[in-house]
Amino acid sequence: MKRDHHTTHLATTLWGRKTAAVAVVTALAAAGAAWSIPMHHESITLLSGEVRTFVSRAPTRVQWEGREKNNVILVVIDGARVQEVFDGVDPVIASQRAFADLESFTSGALLMPELHAWLRDEGTALGAPTDPHGVFASGPNFVSLPGYLEILTGHAQSDCQDNECGAVREKTILDEARERAGARDAVAAFASWPILGRAVAKSPDAMVVSAGIDSLYGWAELKKTPALLRLWETGRPKDSYPGLDGYRTDVLTARLALAYIEARAPRLTFIALGDTDEYAHKGDYRGYIKALRQTDLILGELRNTLKRSGEWGRRTTVLVTADHGRANDFRNHGGAYPESARSFVIALGGQARQEGIITTSAPHRLADIAPTVRHILRLPARDLNPKPGSMLAEAIVTGDGKSMALHDRLDR
Question: Which of 32, 228, 351, 386 is surrounded by the fewest CB atoms within 10 Å?
Fold first, then answer.
């Protein structure tokens, strides 16, 4: 399991407050404490109608003109294996552990129906198990923080090969989008793992970042919409299970993220869900499968949120990926397990092509995600060293390509 030594970034006055329970949020806090996702799939509502109405009263302060109207939501499912995401429950593991109730999930569409329905209707997926080229973390140590930094910067991190690296020392795509937008609430990050509070951006205090139970940057922005601040406060349970050291469960992370999206219509949102990796490290395959199904329900609610959001929702591209895969033994990952380098990228809605699951023409890396986000958002290209990633033209509509960087147009 991942450990970290995170720092809390709230104003002292906020720590001293006693938060009154309000009816509009209490139900969310109680629901977040339960781990009761059934093995049969049923819809859930992460935001009650009351909360959705409450947060939607806040004016959308981010306005985009012309080509600036495109938006991105980047979702990372920590340690999710391509096997389960695309092919369903591993029949060998289910049989060995006598999980007869899991054996019916014989495809990705049965295990994660919301994701696959979205993919079928308006998306393209790279890196399925049948793809001979695939999508990979660059490594050489296939653990979380190097994977996240590769995703967010557009190149492998030679000086970060474990989960104990310090704060990120270069701008990430969140920093770039924040500088272009000129508004603090235009970029936001929500993570279950607290260490990401100091890893998603070089200047996290210039945007809204909530990672784990305690870490929060930009609370003044949340304060402008009281329901968002209350939602953050009620999403701070004392128990960090299934993680450690201030970890926040995915359902609570997702509630805050979806409420923020509903209220502020940001240009770039980063959502990092971690329950899958936490349960996998415990060797709890049933918990891992439940976490994947919970993630699927979250993606379904995200799709519903975008459908309610009119033109902004139609101009929003969702990218779903994983920071690393898993070893053949399921429980582990890292440099000793080269198979755990394997990941995937699924592009949905917005600028995504509608090709379904495809076979890629060449191998791709997690480093390819950042230039893809830059292309969608029309951000200036960066001359990165070492070798940068390339825009995922197989998954994203490239248009005339005039604003693409040279390194985004050339073969690696």
Answer: 386
